[in-house]
Amino acid sequence: MHYPDDILEAFVHKTVENGMDIIRIFDALNDIRNMEKALQVTKRAGAHAQATVVYTVSPVHTTQHYLETALRLEEMGADSICIKDMAGLLAPFKSYELVKLFKAHLNVPVQLHCHYIGGMAVGSYLKAAEAGVDVVDTASVPLAFGASQPPVETVVRALKGTPYDTGLSIKSLFEVAQYFEDLRKQLGQQRGVTRISDMRVFEHQVPGGMISNLVSQLEEQKALHRLDEVLEEIPRVRRNWATRRWLRPPARLWAPRRY
């Protein structure tokens, strides 16, 4: 959290005071030094401290890296670990492998958070269930799909009658969905859809929480028609940066800025 410690403490304590009982803490680079203070404050506030391991695809993001990160976070006092698939890149069979590994080595619950973006999330959740995942993140159908999470109704139905049956009532879920569908229409919000540009996440790897901001920024600049060009440029920039980063001589160790 890139704020002074006193702001972080006030935020966490006020959030817990207002009824939040689980605080999810993450760093986009899996740099646990940036998570330590938030974990400590959350524990002191009496809330459940859930630490995250961010999933992506790159030469340095190996299965061993994810496991080591999770183990260190558990040692730091995390009450549970969430595998955070920000860009919907976690394929079903990799999901099974990762969750199985975490369940074999961790002593805390394992949660999985996938964005729908590329359409793999439901399959990844089913394989994660087979591997013993404790919780998966979903959304009511009017708020699902696109850059959001997969619909809870689909996941519940897919698991019905299996050893992983959630026991949730589909009828009740659709009553909840109707409320949000009416609210969506009232506010004039669009339904989540998976566009071709979203499906290209396997190349551009823009997280679900960022793609909508990217679109908004292009709209403000009257450049939305150049979205495809931007998404084509992102992987090129990443490759060029990675080439320079890994081939240059070692520099002094970087340390996070202290406030």
UniProtKB/TrEMBL annotation:
One GO biological process term: gluconeogenesis
Gene3D superfamilies: Aldolase class I (3.20.20.70)
InterPro entries, alphabetized: Aldolase_TIM, Carboxylase_cons_dom, PCB-like, PYR_CT
Residue intervals of the Pyruvate carboxyltransferase domain: 1-174
Pfam families, sorted: HMGL-like (PF00682), PYC_OADA (PF02436)
Molecular function terms from GO: pyruvate carboxylase activity
GO CC terms in record: cytoplasm
Protein known as: Pyruvate carboxyltransferase domain-containing protein
Organism: Desulforamulus profundi
